Amino acid sequence: MRKTVTGIALAAAAAMLLIGCGSDGGAKSRGNAADRAGDKAPSSQSASPEAAPKKGAHEVTLEVEGSGKVAVMYNAAGSGFEEQSLPWTLTETVELTAAEQRVGYLVTAVPGTITAADGSLQQAPCVIKVDGKKVADNDAGKNPKGCTFTIKG
After folding, report:
1. Contact (Cβ atoms closer than 8 angstroms) between residue 114 and residue 102
2. Is pLDDT of 116 > 70?
3. Sequence spans of domains, the chain
4. What mean pLDDT value characterizes the chain?
5. Where does residue 128 rank: exposed (0-12), middle (13-18), buried (19+ CB within 10 A)?
6. Other C-beta atoms within 10 Å of 98: how many?
7. Which residues contact 17 (CB under 8 A, 6 or more apart)?
8. Torsion over CA of 84, 85, 89 and 91, rounded to 10 degrees?
9. Buried/exposed code over 36-60 (b: 16+ C-beta within 10 A; e: otherwise)
10. Residue % of the chain over a pLDDT of 90
11. Per-residue pLDDT tens for 32-48?
C-alpha cells in the first residue's frame, strides 16, 4: 500500500511539473522577431505571393494515428496536454531565436494508449514532420517514449 501511494504521489508531482513548464500563450508568447523587438521594424502593407521563408522559421506537423480518443501531450510553437479525437494533426510555424538556432528547440508529441490489433494496450503511433519531411516517429506505437525531435538552424 505504501509503495502504491508513493508511486501515485510521484506520478502526480511529475505531471504537475510537466504541465507547469508549458506555455499557454502558444504563438502569442513566442511572437515573431518584430513583436519581440517592440514593433520597431517597418512593416509592408502588401505581402509577396512568393515570400521567402524567414530564417529560423519551420513548419512543424505533429500527427497521432489510430481511432477513438486519447490524451496527447505536445510541444511545438505552443504546448498542451489534451484529449484528442484520432487521427489528430497539428501544424504550427515555429520561429527559432538566434540562441535556439544554435542549441536547438525540442518538439514533442507523446500520445496516450490505444488498443492494438492483438487486444493489448500500446502507445498510439505518432509522427513529427519538419518542413514536410518526416523526422521522428515511435515505430508505430512500439516505442513508449513518444516522438521527439530537436530543430536546429
Report:
1. no
2. yes
3. 2-27+53-151
4. 78
5. buried
6. 9
7. none
8. -50
9. eeeeeeeeeeeeeeeeeeeebebeb
10. 59
11. 444 444 444 433 344 43
